Amino acid sequence: MEKYISYLKENFLTPEQYILSKFEEHEVILLGEDHAVKNTLDLAISLIPQLYQSGVYTFGMEFGASEDQADLDRLITSEEYDETEARRLLFNYNVRWAYKEYADIYKAAWKLNKSLPKGERKFRILNLSYMYNWEGYSGMRTPTSLKKVFHKGNILAFRANLVEREILSKGEKLLVLTGTPHAYTKFKFPVVDSNADEFYSLQGGGFGNRLHEKFGSKIFNVLIHQPAIHINTLLPHATKGIKTIETVMERLDYQPVGFDLMNTVMGEIPDDGYNSIPYENFTLKEVSDGYIFTKPLRKQQGCTVDYEYLKGKNFEDVQNHWPDKDWTPIPENEKEYWKEIEGYVDLRERY
Where are the alpha helices (DSSP H) in the chain? Predict the structure, then answer.
């Protein structure tokens, strides 16, 4: 334990300092988030003006449709900020994403742009997804049904191609906020495979995997402190590695910190979650290049529910476009809708 504490004391960087420092050697940094956790979104919001000052002019969001990019560009460069328009843009991508802090990222970018001298380059929020077609989806995932839902092709390939086109081909830099599995670069996720000798196979082809395979060290991924999947139950919990980090951080008064996992003692922390399946001696460096600790799991907060999200919306549209019906049933009414929204940010269910 002492070696981890000593390393962090000697190499201490705040999460903001850590992320900004990574742009000295890398072009795209993928932040792997557990969705709708307020502490993570607060960090992203605080980073926006600092990114600009460091010459990073774009922030990528999984939760946004490329069809709305021009409208989003107008929103965050307008004279007056339009809360209703911000909600519309999020709703267009995901009818259930009624979480205030995601819209607050737009507002932070608008505030920055509003403060810039006339003629200065504007900061941009880059939507990394497109509008899926959930209408008529029965909840059964087959090649035919998925081709209908993801009508512009594999969403992970779409995101990787968009980043290449909009950022890497232009010599630009980008910070991306995305779900943790999408941020994996070298790591390939084990999936159950009854035909395999060890009853699992390794699934690549993710957003980060695709970028790293093509652009190598230009791509860097950072895991934000969160539960991992239990090796047997497949439910989130505090694995051995997470418990070790929390014990170390308790000794450091839980100061938020960012640190490398690759080629450091921190990366040698052993872990025993689901990700460890392919390894005899699994350590944290296998899954990520870097790590950010914000708060211990028990003190993490869910995002703020935006009860204005459905204002002016037809609830039938919510039901028709409800995503991932095989994971979460379509709500029958607004009461059930808000129960689902509130339940997702009650982290006692996840942490």
Answer: 2-10, 15-22, 38-53, 69-75, 83-93, 100-115, 143-149, 155-166, 180-183, 207-215, 240-251, 315-320, 334-344
